[in-house]
Write a structure and sequence with these properties.
There is one protein chain. By secondary structure, the protein is mainly alpha-helical. It folds into two domains: about 5-80, Rna Polymerase Sigma Factor, Chain: A (Orthogonal Bundle); about 90-189, Winged helix-like DNA-binding domain superfamily/Winged helix DNA-binding domain (Arc Repressor Mutant, subunit A, Orthogonal Bundle), CATH 1.10.10. The chain contains nine helices and no strands. The longest helix is centred in the N-terminal third of the chain and has 23 residues, at about 5-25. Pfam families: Sigma70_r2, Sigma70_r4_2. This is RNA polymerase subunit sigma.
């Protein structure tokens, strides 16, 4: 269903804080995040008439932001401000968490969080999740958000960040482990 310019402007004011938080998480620079959100809102406003209602309006705007973030990352790379990822595998951490057969060590086993449907509806869970995501090291957070929040394929992430596929999977694994540990501490305790 098409949306009017007036409705779009109202949505933008409510969306802006979430757009900015998402952009800061990915770009890790406030000025770059502000620029990406400003460009996103301008593009969305200019193209509001092309919104066909096949998705939620907010989802459509976040889609525009994802492309703006990728543009900013590419621009950083061209300008030489890009910090490549050089994340080596931490075997000691994996050994502390898992047995040789791949099962959890008894002391590292995650807590039971209850029913997923109820948890995902809980606003406190998402506040803790956001805090945990922001606390991730930049390189890990970047890969995780590109994959899980922006929906890029592993191949695209490797191309954008100039890393190997193996390194990408290791970083994603680390991100999930760290998020799980953080959520266990902040959510279940």
């Amino acid at each position: 269903m098409p949306i009017s310019s007036q409705q779009a402007a109202e949505h933008f004011s409510h969306m802006r804080p979430r757009l900015l938080a998402f952009a800061r998480l990915q770009l890790r620079e406030s000025a770059a995040a502000e620029d990406a959100v400003r460009e996103t809102l301008l593009t969305a406003f200019e193209k509001t008439s092309s919104f066909e209602g096949r998705s939620e309006f907010e989802t459509w705007v976040f889609g525009i932001l994802k492309f703006k973030i990728l543009d900013h990352l590419r621009q950083q790379k061209k300008q030489g401000r890009w910090q490549p990822l050089n994340d080596s595998i931490d075997e000691d951490t994996l050994d502390r968490l898992f047995k040789s057969n791949g099962h959890w060590q008894a002391s590292a086993r995650p807590h039971d969080w209850g029913e997923p449907e109820h948890i995902l509806e809980n606003q406190r869970f998402w506040q803790v999740f956001d805090a945990c995501l922001i606390a991730l090291p930049d390189s890990i957070a970047r890969v995780f958000t590109l994959r899980e929040l922006m929906g890029l394929s592993t191949q695209d992430i490797c191309k954008e960040l100039d890393i190997t596929e193996t390194n990408c999977w290791v970083i994603l694994h680390r991100a999930r482990l760290r998020l799980r540990a953080c959520l266990d501490n902040g959510w279940t305790q």
